[in-house]
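Hi all, long-time lurker, first post. I run a small reading group and we've been trying to get comfortable going from sequence to structure in the token notation. Rather than ask abstract questions, I figured I'd post a concrete chain and ask someone more experienced to write out its structure so we can walk through it together at our next meeting. Sequence below, copied exactly:
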Amino acid sequence: MARPTRVALALGSGGARGYAHIGVISELADRGFEVVTVAGSSMGALVGGLHCAGKLDEYVDWTSKLTQLDVVRLMDVSLSKPGVIGAERILTRVREILGDTRIEDLDIPFTAVATDLNAGRAVWFQRGSLVDAIRASIAIPGVISPHELDGRLLGDGGILDPLPVAPTSAVTSDVTIGVVLGADGGPDQGAMREAKSKGLLRRNVAPILDSDFVRSVRDRFGLELSATDPDAQVGGDNLRMGRIEVLSRSLDIMQEALTRYQVAGYPPDILIRVPRRAVRTLDFHKASEMIALGRSLTADALDELPELA
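-- Answer (accepted) --
Happy to help. Here is the structure in token form:
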């Protein structure tokens, strides 16, 4: 029998961990797989939309060069908006890359999932402006401001649909792959240890930048490292949570439960789990590490199935 090559891809939500999606797509391409449809929530919608538009490489070239200071400058931090981060500067760059691309004109069928905050239901974007769909899907509650579109107030797709497998069922494929961001326990920890041993991940504790503004943003909204332990790792008992990390962890817990429910109803053929402790939600300056981890996890998952290796 011919080796299955047509892949339906469901890309989950999870902030900066979503850079792993890029590694997943790259590994699939290098092995000769054809992605025939993509559905994504939040960061999965951003990466998936760029891929379906043929613009992912351009985005990677830009984001891989961002430093922690660059990311802070792009975040439009505000205490007066519904979200701490406006994200418009980031979306400006995405808009420059994508232009006026419409979803229905993409060569690869794509679905971006958002949440209608007033109606309390998931919204599937399969037509219309690709940039608007991405902007709506990435609006992490309390972190990135919601997006107003056509009379609806739209938030992160991961609120109700953290792993959107269902939208991919409309396209014929040989295998469905789901990528979960923020998984705990199980084989993920072994993959993390292997990735670290290969130098794919660096320590999450970044050097203190010489900027009062950066320090104030980090201390107010991010994780605060214990002053008594300079070698502390994210997830350790000696860390205090800032408000963003409280929101992020709360969403992670909710989305983990929702993902288990979704996987039971729409089980993908392959489920790739990206560990929650790989990076923090807003560590968008760590694209290279997460891309490499996504590649490693995908290679391991494919190698375990002889018919796909």
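A couple of things your group might point at:
The beta strands are 6-11, 34-41, 110-116, 121-125, 147-149, 152-155, 175-183, 224-225, 239-240, 270-275.
DSSP finds ten helices and ten strands in the chain.
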